[in-house]
Amino acid sequence: MRGYLALATGDYKTAIESLRQAADRGLAVSLPFLAYACARSGDAAAARRTLEEIEHQPNDAARTPALLAGTYAALGDRARAFALLDKAFAERDFWLSELHVSPPFDPLRGDPQFEALVKRVDAR
Fold first, then answer.
1. pTM over 0.85
2. Does 13 share its domain with 58?
3. Do 43 and 69 sit in the same domain of this protein?
4. Which of 29, 58, 77, 115 could form a disulfide with 72 if both were Cys (CB 3.0 to 4.6 A apart)?
5. What is the distance between the alpha carbons of residues 116 and 53, in angstroms, rounded to a whole number?
6. pLDDT tens, 75-121?
């Protein structure tokens, strides 16, 4: 999908447009990526609105803890990001397999809590 590629290349304007279109078509998993794109673009208000939208989604795919943690990390809310990562670990969230490489986790790298989580995930 164009939105994910744009997000990966840092083209947040295109990512936001494409991910919003996907979400409007019912692809709920696009919402966490949209929130992250908004946060990375500097639009914290739009990121928070999207996070609120996610809370009201009937589809659990939109409320994936690890994906949401990346948005909170991008917003600078490290406490919420780590709480969600702990929840992701408890739920065996698939997206934790991306801890080593996924850019949304970059703000958390080097933090002892993050390093401890990586070790726990790797030991599983």
1. yes
2. yes
3. no
4. 77
5. 31
6. 999 999 999 999 999 999 999 999 999 989 999 999 999 999 999 99
